[in-house]
Amino acid sequence: MESQTRSVSSGTPGDVSSISPQLNRLIRQRSRDLRLRKFDQQSAVKIVNHLIESLLEYLKNNEDHPFFRDVSVLTSGSYYEMVKINKPNEFDIMLKLKVPRLELSELEEYQGLFYKVKLVKATRKEIKHFLLEDERTISATKIKEEMHRLVRKFINNHFKGKGWVINRKLVNSPAVTLEYNNKEKEDDVMSVDIVPTLEVPQGWPQAARAGPNIDNWLGKKCRRQFVSKAVYFVPKRPKGRNLKDDAKESWRISFSHIEKEMMQYHGNKKTCCETPSNKCCRKRCLQLLKCLIEGLKQRYPKELEPLCSYHGKTAFFHVLSDRVQDSLWSPGQMSVSFMKLFGYFERRALDGSLLHFFVRQHNLFSPPAFPKRALAFLTNALKEQRELEFPVLKVPSPSAALVPDTDALIHPNPINGTDSIVASEHSFRHVYAWLVVVIVCVGIGCVFV
Ligand SMILES: [Zn+2]
Prior knowledge:
Number of helices: 12
CATH class of the largest domain: Alpha Beta
Bound molecules: zinc ion
Domain Mab-21-like nucleotidyltransferase: 79-264
Strand content: 5-15%
Organism: Culter alburnus
Distance between the termini: 76 Å
Shape: globular
GO molecular function: 2',3'-cyclic GMP-AMP synthase activity; chromatin binding; double-stranded DNA binding
Transmembrane segments: 431-448
Number of domains: 3
Number of strands: 9
CATH topology of the largest domain: Beta Polymerase, domain 2
Radius of gyration: 25 Å
Family: Belongs to the mab-21 family.
Order of helices and strands: HHEEEEHEEEHEHEHHHHHHH
C-alpha cells in the first residue's frame, strides 16, 4: 500500500503529522458516541429473531413452493460484525437454498464479480421451476420474485398489523426488504434484508482463487482456511443500462461470511481485543469511516448514489492487510489510525482505483458501477472534509446521522453548514457580552442607590 512508501506532506491525504487538538478531540468524541446502546441491540435482535424464526417455519411448511422448504440461515451483515453505525437498525439475513452441484461461468466484462450459475446436469428436483429455457441456468430473477412473493404472503398471513411492511422491489437489489416501525417510538425504524443465497462448495472461482492478501496480517494458514470454505452467490445484476440477457440473470459472488470472520478475528496476534488491556481501535476506525460515508450520502444523495459502506469496508481491509501490527491500532492511536484509513480511502478515490478485496481484478471505483462524475464529486467532498476537519462528523447527537439533514439538502455545501455553526456561536457570544454589561450596570446602580 502506498501510505508507507509515499512521503506525506502537510495537507495531503493520509498526513498524520498535523492532527490538531480539535480534530483529535472530535475523532475521539465521535468514536465514543458510536458505541451501541446495549438495550437497543437486545430489543432489536429479539424482534428480528422472532420474525426470522417464524419465516423459516412458514417456508418449511409452505404448500406453494417445496424448493423454498429447505432453507437455512447464513447470517451476515454489519450488525453481527458489531460495527453498526449509531443504532442497530439494519439486518442482513442470507437464506441459503439447497441446490445440486453447480457450474460457474464468469461474465467477462465484470472482472470476476458476476456469474452465470448453472446446474451441472439437468434435474427433476424442485429447482426445475427456477431455470431458464436451457433447463440448466438458474434464473436470478425467478428466485428473487418467488422469494418476494413468499415473504409477502408470510407477512400478510402472520404479521399483518404488527409493524412490519414490505418494501417495493428494486431491480438492482438482491434482497426482499422488510421495514419495522415501532408504534410507541415513531423514529424507531428497523429494516431487514432477506437475501436468497446459493452455496457453491466446490472451491473459489478462478478470479478469487489466490485468496485475500492477508499473509502478513492474519497469516498464510488463515488464508488457506478461507479459500477452502464455500463461496456464496446472491441474485444481483450489474449496474448499467442495456444489459445482455446473461447479465440480467446473473449472480454476484459474496464473501460476507469471510468478511464477518475477518472482523471478528482481526488481530495480528490472536489475543487482540480478548481482554481490556489488549483492546484495539480497528473496528472504531471502520465505524467512523462508515459514519462519514453515511453522512456524505445524506448530504448528497443524488451525487453520491453509487457510494456505499462496502467501499469503506474494502478500504478498511486493504489498510488492515498492510498496517498489520496490533500496537499501531492501540486505542491511543485512534486519531492517527483513522487519518491513515481516511487517507487511503481518499487516495483510492483520487486514483479512481479501489480493488475488490477478494477479486483483485475488479475495481469498485470503475464505471458504470461508479461513474466518473460521481467519483470526481466524491474526491472533492473527501478533500473538503479533510481540510475543514470533518464537519460531517460534527453531528449533535448519536442518532442525528440517521435523520436526513434537511438543511444540508437545501444548501448542499459543507462550508455553509460550518458557517452557520460559527455564526450561531458568534451570536451567543454577543448575548453573553450584553448580559455581563447589564449585570455590571445594575451592580453599579445598586452601589450608588
Ligand atoms: Zn483488536
